[in-house]
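New to this. Explain these tokens.
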Amino acid sequence: MAEELHISASTDKIEKYESLIPQVEALISGETDLVANLANIAAALRYGMDFFWVGFYMVKEDQLVLGPFQGPIACTRINRGKGVCGQAWDQAKTFVVSDVDAFPGHIACSSDSKSEIVVPIKINGAVIGVLDVDSDELNSFDAVDQKYLERLMNSLSDICS
């Protein structure tokens, strides 16, 4: 079955999210397989929002392990509390980082990454993984990104719970 997203040509971030997020929610609503949904979300966000890197790290025992992603190769494992992803997991909250080089303990999987947002994925209150989005420009993420990406992760959680 072929799926198609209609990507807004707008340069306004809110308009792009308003167009893209409902389409992604509709796409994942009919699928119960987590990996399939993560793969489609990563692709949709990477190409729909023109992000540098979009991917998921999933909790496996005592580490985050790389899951589906779009973009350059990435770190495979991240310890709890380490880097932006590990802290988002440990604290169960979203981190918006305007300059990754200024973030204490940042893990540089790519020297091209300049800013980042990490959103935890929670099922029944427990963090099962994180959505990690990187930009190759400083100050790329803000409250708008946080709002829409948290909404999308909540939709994913509703499907998986």
